[in-house]
Sequence to fold (66 residues):
Amino acid sequence: MEQEIEPIMAAIEEVDNRLLDIIELYRAIWPGFNGTPVDPVISNLYDAYKANGKLADAVDKGWVKR
Fold:
């Protein structure tokens, strides 16, 4: 079972890293993004990042299987 989880967790970690990279890129391009059209984009990316973390927790607990 541990062997099945490792590739899934590696994929989840890769998604996490890419989401954070995109968020950091947006923040670097638009440092004063609050109240602009960029604000909801960053909020949605952050929500996706949090949801991905919840998926990782569910996989760790065995609640989600491949």
Remarks:
- The chain has a mean pLDDT of 88.
- The chain has two helices and no strands.
- The two ends are 11 Å apart (CA to CA).
